[in-house]
Design a protein that fits this description.
By secondary structure, the protein is of the alpha/beta class. Helices cover 51% and strands 9% of the residues. Pathway: Carbohydrate biosynthesis; gluconeogenesis.
Length: 663
């Protein structure tokens, strides 16, 4: 609001409300000075991560190290005064303070001297990483029990003789009263907290890796984060909402990759109903097409009986899934997926199937629960099993807590500080235009369709159970997971059926949306950015979802630098294809920096051997001048507050509003 000689009644009402918080000229002036000072601080560091896929150890290491930001600061400060071995140990200590400290205490004779030296180094590092924030913000980030002490230490100049004894005495007292280990741990956590101001997780927390729940626990404790839903996140959101189809999908995927730990241990969901059903109904069936993928370690750990049960369970839930998917397609003709109705196309006599006019032999047609005359109807036993399992997903307290967090901190896309973040794609036609969807909506494309899709995804969880809106919302979540040209799936079809039953691998292909060709064109990237209200040299699309095949020479930088693919490559199954463990992105006040990572050596090795993730950092775009908070989204909000306070000052001084000097 601009200062004016007169204000209309609406503006005056707002200013009177504002005057309750700032009742005097002095109060309003002080706040203007504070906000104006903040605008001139450097922009905080943003950390972008994508496609972590349940690989919690690698994710937590990337989180703790801030993709190399912590080590970079250590090298800047100490590279000429501290040995590389000591710097490696100090970095590991910051990443894993409790575990590393226990090891150091076992191996170090003079812990008092070690603590004294280490505290000096950590406090110096803390001073550096806190320098771009206001003193107030740093104080709020500090652990309450040590806030005063840390504040004193990082703002005391050691070279000042009058303060040197004061500084040393604080450190000595901490050691003398046996608070050194606790203080050190809290100091390390503060350093990590200040190294990154905000984190973006660009989708796919779930599936493939063992413990997505541990990742979500850490995200819920993180100081500032937003999430762009990936297709695997949508899958679990739908299961938690009560979609039987997506529950079946979660279980089929988890059984396929022998990844049941997150379900049974993480979320406390029992699979006994499925195992009992599978052992009874599929006891005499061929389950060779449903053998579970096992690691070398698992191969020796599981008996043949275990492997047979897993295959039976996998086949049982997959047949339930195919039926439920068929029901969704039949119930929603607007999805345009009638060609994916395949159970009714099977020729049981000749053991073959005709798909799009081509007949293929099938490896397996032994389906005891499928009625060829009515193939998409569940048997009573199947219905009872999937109902029990869905009830367990709906009543897992921890899962529900995590899904509520995904809804509260997440969305299909995010516009933040000039960048557009989304997991999958903006669906495009072969001709290069935007696909227009009419799925519960009318002729929407681009941003308008993503806004509609985001709202519909929320209705699946928050609308009244049993209501038509919630039912369609759950169907729509399945469309987002596997639907033709869905913005987070980005493919023409999901060929799970073909992969299970047809040997001809040409039927397994899942053609990508044309977006993945057109995003190499800077003009297309600019067109998409403009649709989301972004224009300018330093605006980018930041994508996850599709692993970058680095070993084949593919670059994560697309569209002449307008688009970045940061699929994290955390999932071990993808690393043979990509050749690395993917990319993360750092955006600070000076530049954008892509960081490529080698596979993680594991938490135990990292702690014991002081091994960091081997990473290569490349600055691919520098800013003309250091960006200040004034140039960020937060800065624009602060400027609006300043404008409103300036208007309030004018109203005070013109007599439109009276000051309230309380005694």
């Amino acid at each position: 609001m601009k200062p004016s000689k007169t204000y209309n009644s609406k503006d005056l009402h707002y200013l009177k409300m504002l005057a309750r918080q700032y009742p005097t000229v002095q109060a309003a002036s002080t706040e203007i000075i504070n906000l104006q000072a903040i605008l001139n601080l450097p922009k905080g560091t943003e950390h972008f991560i994508s496609d972590v896929h349940g690989e919690y150890e690698a994710f937590l290491h990337i989180l703790n190290s801030a993709s190399g930001v912590v080590r970079e600061k250590l090298d800047q400060i100490f590279s000429t005064s501290v040995s590389k071995a000591d710097l490696n140990q100090l970095a590991t200590l910051i990443y894993y303070p409790q575990e590393k400290l226990e090891e150091i205490e076992r191996e170090t004779e003079d812990m008092r001297e070690w603590y004294r030296i280490t505290f000096h180094r950590l406090i110096e590092l803390c001073r550096v990483v806190s320098s771009k924030y206001t003193r107030s913000k740093v104080r709020k980030a500090m652990p309450k029990e040590y806030a005063y002490i840390i504040d004193e230490l990082i703002h005391t100049h050691y070279e000042d003789d009058d303060k040197r004894d004061y500084y040393e005495n604080i450190i000595s007292t901490i050691i003398d009263i046996d608070r050194a280990s606790d203080f050190l741990i809290q100091l390390c956590e503060l350093i990590k907290r200040l190294a990154v101001d905000h984190m973006h997780l660009v989708g796919d927390i779930f599936d493939r890796g063992p413990r997505a729940d541990i990742i979500l626990d850490s995200l819920m404790d993180y100081h500032s984060v937003d999430i762009q839903w990936g297709n695997h996140d949508i899958l679990w959101m739908g299961a938690a909402s009560g979609s039987r189809t997506l529950v079946a999908t979660v279980l089929a995927n988890s059984l396929r990759y022998n990844n049941l730990e997150v379900i049974e241990t993480g979320y406390g969901i029992s699979l006994r109903p499925l195992s009992v059903f599978a052992n009874e109904v599929y006891q005499d069936c061929d389950v060779s097409c449903f053998a579970v993928k096992l690691t070398n370690e698992d191969e020796t750990r599981y008996t043949e009986k275990d492997k047979l049960l897993a295959a039976r369970m996998h086949k049982a839930i997959t047949m339930i899934l195919f039926k439920l998917e068929g029901q969704k397609i039949l119930r929603n003709p607007s999805f345009g997926m009638d060609d994916r109705l395949l159970l009714d196309k099977i020729d049981y006599e000749n053991k073959c199937i005709t798909i799009q006019g081509v007949t293929y032999p099938m490896e397996d047609t032994d389906f005891p629960t499928v009625d060829p005359a009515d193939p998409y109807t569940l048997t009573e036993e199947e219905s009872a099993v999937i109902d029990q399992l869905t009830h367990s997903f709906r009543h897992s307290e921890k899962l529900q807590r995590h899904i509520r967090f995904l809804y509260s901190k997440g969305s299909l896309y995010k516009v933040f500080n000039g960048n557009l973040l989304f997991h999958g794609c903006i669906p495009m036609t072969e001709e290069g235009g935007l696909i227009r969807f009419s799925i519960g909506c009318k002729d929407l494309s681009g941003k308008a369709f993503l806004d509609y899709a985001d709202l519909t995804a929320r209705r699946a969880y928050y609308n009244k159970p049993g209501s038509p809106e919630r039912q369609f919302g759950m169907d729509f979540l399945w469309f987002l997971w596997a639907g033709r040209n869905s913005p987070i799936f980005g493919r023409d079809r999901m060929t799970t059926f073909e992969r299970r039953f047809i040997k001809d691998e040409s039927t397994w292909t899942e053609p990508k949306n044309p977006y993945y060709q057109y995003y190499n064109d800077p003009a297309v990237c600019d067109m998409i950015l403009k649709d989301f209200g972004l224009e300018g040299r330093h605006c980018h699309i930041i994508n996850g979802h599709i692993p970058v095949k680095s070993k084949k020479g593919e670059s994560p930088i697309k569209g002449g630098g307008k688009l970045l693919v940061i699929d994290g490559g955390f999932c071990k199954a993808y690393q043979k294809t990509t050749g690395i463990a993917g990319y993360t992105l750092i955006y600070n006040s000076a530049c954008f920096r892509l960081v490529s990572h080698e596979p993680f050596v594991g938490r135990k090795n990292a702690i014991r051997e002081n091994q960091d993730i081997a990473s290569t950092s490349v600055v691919f775009e520098r800013l003309e001048s250091r960006m200040k908070i004034a140039g960020t989204d937060v800065g624009r909000q602060l400027q609006e507050q300043i404008d409103d306070l300036m208007a309030l000052l004018w109203a005070f001084r013109s007599g439109e509003i009276a000051e309230d000097h309380k005694e």
